[in-house]
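Model: You mentioned two targets. I'll fold them one after the other.
Researcher: Yes, keep them separate.
Model: Target one:
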Amino acid sequence: MLLFKRFWKIARLYWLGDEKWGAITILSILILFLLVNTNLNVVINSQQGNLLSALAAQDGKKFWITAKYLFSLYLILTVNWGVYNYLRKKLILYWRRWLTRDFLSKYLHDRAFYELSQSQQEIDNPDQRIAEDINEFADGSLAFFFDFLYTCTQGIAFSTVLWKISPTLTIILVVYVGSGTLVTTRLFGKKLVKLNYEQKKREGDFRFGLVRLRENAESVAFYRGEDQELNQVNQLFNHVFSNFNKIVIDQELYLNSFIKLYQNIPWILPAVIIGPQILAGNIEIGKFAEAQGAFNKLFRAMYVIVKRFDKLVDFTSRIDRLVEFDNFLQKLKRKMPHQSIQSSTINTLENGHFEIQDLTLYTPNFQRSLLQDVSVKLPSAQGMLIRGMSGCGKSSLLRAISGLWTSGQGTIIRPPLEEILFVPQRPYMVLGTLRNQLLYPQVNNRISDQELHQILHQVNLPDLAQRFDGFDTEMDWADVFSLGEQQRIALARILIARPQYVILDEATSALDVENEENFYRHLLNLGTTFISVGHRPTLVKYHHLILELSGSKDWKLRQVKIAAPSYIR
């Protein structure tokens, strides 16, 4: 019952969602096809007995009529199964698509992905849960539903046939299947579920380690850290290996050996029970064939839990992972829509300007105080530079402004986040075309190629489009562009989006002095209000306010008179 509740928590998202009627229609058609298949199997089993009886009686006419009838039944059965499997795969595909979109929407809503990355809760490998667990959940759900339905329909149909031939054989079969199911679930159930759950986690960690190595290949090569990386990846794989070794011992050696023996015994049971009656002449040989066929059909239908126990264990672990993931996302969703800002100790107000009032900032969970009683007001169309020694809280202050860090006291007044563009030291390079890079994070900008060429010229990348055969070329841009080019791409994004407010975290650290000046002169010409974090002395002349932070939580604010910006081509 607990397993079903956890299953339904995820399943109802789709079956009570906006695609439910289409899904229910396909499911109903599939059930109809399964019922037709069951009836066909009953008739085929009966005709197979008639075929054997005709051979025993040397009745050629009856034999050929029965053979032709069987051939037509098999043809219908083949078409029925083909359409059934096609519709079933389509329903799995639709279910996976809907669930994936739903989880992705919740995962990316209100920066839940960031909250998850900062959480102390054990929600490992969300990418694996979305990419793999959802697919296996949809596939496994339909597989077990139709296994259960198949068991019911085949059980009703063939138990009637078998009972007419041998009630004793029917009772023995029920006892045999029930005992096998009980032994399997009791001996192997909980342990294998736990091992499979852990295996999903360790496989995800191992894959993440390999992806991380690929994404940081240059840094590792510069450090010559191959040996340490090899040790780290080997250690992750050893965790995979050791846990899988336990699964192999419990599942492949013990469970599968038991299942193999369990499957083989029923082939001889009908002969042992009915054989004496045939030898005594009480039952014809055709009835024995029909009884054995019904027995084996009924056995294969009834022992579904034993037969698919390894799949059930894997399915159960995926349910647990999705329920755990969904619970976390739902908890964030209930707390997030601006309640997260209001319920935090830092009071964040949305207004048309930047102001900080008596702000005391802590690290998450209030472990350490970074800033104390900071008050700053930044006029529109001006810039403020935040300076200080490493670790004094410069970047942390930007996180507090963006709402990512909320541990502290005081008030932050800022425009809505939709009006602010945050530019980190290493700009994010999205998957997609060169055009996607320039337009990010916008999705509906209809800017022309000519305008894009003009903006690239302004950021000193005039031949960028030509280097890659146009704006629609797709590449791994994080590897293609140098950090300096990436930072100039970030300036191009600003010139395209023209935000009123920009926050820059070491955004020009890889630029030469000339390109740095070009960067800030563009911001001043646009009339942008901006906040920068940086160390270079050359940055001072582009900012009206300088906020000096120290490691002792002291701070100092001073004004700077800067030259009026000149127009830049």
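Model: Target two:
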Amino acid sequence: MLPKVLLRMSQEDVLFVRRYHPLIEYIRNISAGNRKTIFFLSLLPVLICFMYIWYYGVNVPYWDEWDNFPLIDKVLTGNFNFSMFYDQFNEHRIVLQRVTMVILGILSSYNTKVDMYFSQITMVIMVFILFIEFKRLLGQNFMALFVPIPYLAFSLMQAVNTLYAIQAVAYYSVFFSVLTFYLISRLDYCETRGKLILQCALPIASALATSFTFTCGLMVWPVGFLQILISGIQKRLKIFMLCVWPIMGAATFLLYFSNYTHPTGSPPAMIFFKYPLQGLTYFSYLLGNILYAGRMVNLIAGIFIVLAAFLLFISIPFNKLPRYSFWIASFTYSFLAIFAIAFGRSTLDFEYLYLPIRYTTYGVVGPISLYVMYIGAVSDESSNTSIRYSKLVKCVFIVLFAVICSSIIPSYESGYSQGVFWKGHREKVAYYTYTYKMQSDENLKIVHPDPMIVRKYAPILENRKYSVFTNPYLPPLDKLTSANCTTTGFYTINAAQPNAHGQLFTIDDKQRYLSIIGWAIDDLKKDIAGGVYIKIDDKLFPALYGLDRVDVAEHLKINNYRYTGYNIEIPVSLIEKGTHKLSVLVLTNDKKHYFVPSVEVIVNRA
């Protein structure tokens, strides 16, 4: 007797389910009967990613973002030319990133979190494209198996890129490559010349956008040619595109490498051939980087992806290639992009653990495409063209499915630890940027390797009220009211503790800085404070608050007090000669009140 679900199917569907019963029937039942659940589970990683940026993202330019900021100023003053967008940046020409940075920067007062959100919006569109192609390949039967794809696309293994605005180039490169292959897959011959030209122009325009995001984006041209070659588009249109595509690709390569110079500090171009084993190891490591954290497990995952891809490509019959053309192109682009990165960076990045993490995004579509092709292979209902080595393919698919699903939880664990670290780090960068006038060059090197860059462009940000200068680092004291109780805390001045009756501290030019280190909590809310001001007479100096003080949490036996530390280095040159009253003002957690200081210290500048 047929199961009830078969009574609601067409004869073709009944034969399909009978062949793979009970597994396919089970998957189909889940897909058909739990659409709301599937939609929610697919949407959840998107929501988590945007919440992740909201909580851990910090609005401050960091390192390379300072080198691109002058473009915004030049555009606003009308003192620019379009070649500035084309100028080489390290090994790359990041035209698209610069254009979006300028537009979003002007619209948002150079709020770098806006760039972070925007890069994830492109990923949302990309996942929607993947959904369309997934449904096109597999129909409604396997929608439940689509759920892991958004978790890979928005994996928090990409946390470094997610929380670093300039790394939007990685997301743009991946998005426009997928868009290019989607537009190629939608090519259809028509008699109307205008529509035909538009159809052909769109993938070419998308490929150009991909090329000018990152150097590995140039791989879109050979991969696009491969897709056109194996696709099932009409013969006349295919011949036309096979003629036009390489011409446009060659022109793009010539334009890209016109006046190109090898950047100082980068490995020699052919260094890969000198150390091929190290390069291939690095390539395998990068390929598995999206799945797990840890070099050895990444290396194993990368090797598994290579072997699984090889098995699949020798298993699919030649006449089935047009069916998989979009996914083959997406996988091949990801594969070649990672290889191009390994080719140029392998001998350098082994010395820096965090650098390879920046390349995680470029490999995100590879496992996704491989996963979808395996679903298509094991569910191929055409008995006349069934895949070779079917039993082995099904076994590898199960392993691949398990690997992808098992990588979800580690990605969130990694994302959490990276989020905590980078939020603390960027908040320090924001503080040093906001107080650049009183910071040493050593501190400003955290903001940018060249402190003079910060000193040159921070005043422009400040005058325009951009980025960290949009709002005060701490609310003005005249807008706060004094609290009725004193605060709990402790601090030292130049490594000496003030006594309860006040104390005289003498400083001179030899010391350079008046260093204050301490911790403070909100006694009203029994929570972390909202910030700390150091007051010298009538001058207020905001301190860097929120530093890790494990000792405080252990002493008070309250883990919530761990990030209650603060410090500040006030240049002696900003303190006039003579005696001054110094006090510590602690803001309440809601930043609406401040605690009256219990002790005032006398500082004498000799």
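Researcher: Noted. Anything on target two?
Model: The chain has a mean pLDDT of 81.
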